[in-house]
Amino acid sequence: MTDKNIKEIEDLIKIIAKLPGLGPKSAKRIVLKLINNREELIRPLTNTLAQVYKNVVRCKVCGNLKSINSNCICSSKKYDQICVVENIADMWVIQGSGIYKGHYHILGGTLPSFEGKNSGNGLLIESLVNRVKKNSIKEVILATSASIEGETTSHYISDSLKDTKVKITRLAKGVPVGGEIEYLDDGTLHSAFKNRASIS
Ligand SMILES: [Zn+2]
């Protein structure tokens, strides 16, 4: 269906093919669907994307998504537990499981395993330490993945929190080695949370 002469279409296919789970073939199908539904799909999609681009940002304190016009949920003082995850997808999985209803801290990735003790590599680790110090946080639950990078990150964080009195726990080893939180089933996640062990 692609007319090589229409640059806009080619560009759109290239962009959509970059989305997770999609390749050039499915991107073409999506673009065709969009073009055939200009008013029902293209117009609202254009508006919504523009709104998201303009109004949704990552909070510089906790890494969560927030509306540019309102305070982030992390600025509330009424919580004493923080669950540390690598990314937003992990948070959504834990939220969906219903096992944990407290606050989150989204690092934005992991430390490379070979780097060890370094500056934190652009992850929101320093801001986690500040959050723990400023609020009366009683427990930090490390829910980074069981990969080498996840372990390195977890060690680095517990090291950074050493001077605070906070209790640090790590999800139990039910998490398969190299396993990412995002792909865990609810049962494994529940037992990993329930059997989390103190490492501080
Ligand atoms: Zn925040």
Walkthrough of the structure:
The chain is of the alpha/beta class. The protein has two domains: 7-57, Helicase, Ruva Protein, domain 3 (Orthogonal Bundle), CATH 1.10.8; 73-198, 3-Layer(aba) Sandwich (Dna Topoisomerase Vi A Subunit, Chain: A, domain 2), CATH 3.40.1360.10. 41% of the residues lie in helices and 12% in strands. The chain is built from seven helices and seven strands. The chain has helices spanning 7-16, 24-36, 38-55, 88-97, 126-134, 148-160, 186-194, and strands at 56-58, 65-67, 81-85, 103-106, 139-142, 167-170, 197-198. The strands form two sheets. It has a five-stranded mixed β-sheet with strand order 4-3-5-6-7. Strands 1-2 form a two-stranded antiparallel sheet. Helix 4 links the parallel strand 3 (81-85) and strand 4 (103-106). Helix 1 (7-16) crosses helix 2 (24-36). The relative contact order is 0.11. The model has no long low-confidence stretch (mean pLDDT 88). Bound molecules: zinc ion. Zinc ion is lined by residues 59, 61-62, 64, 72, 74.
Keywords for this entry:
alpha/beta, 5-stranded mixed sheet, Dna Topoisomerase Vi A Subunit, Chain: A, domain 2, 2 domains, Helicase, Ruva Protein, domain 3, single chain, 12% strand, 200 residues
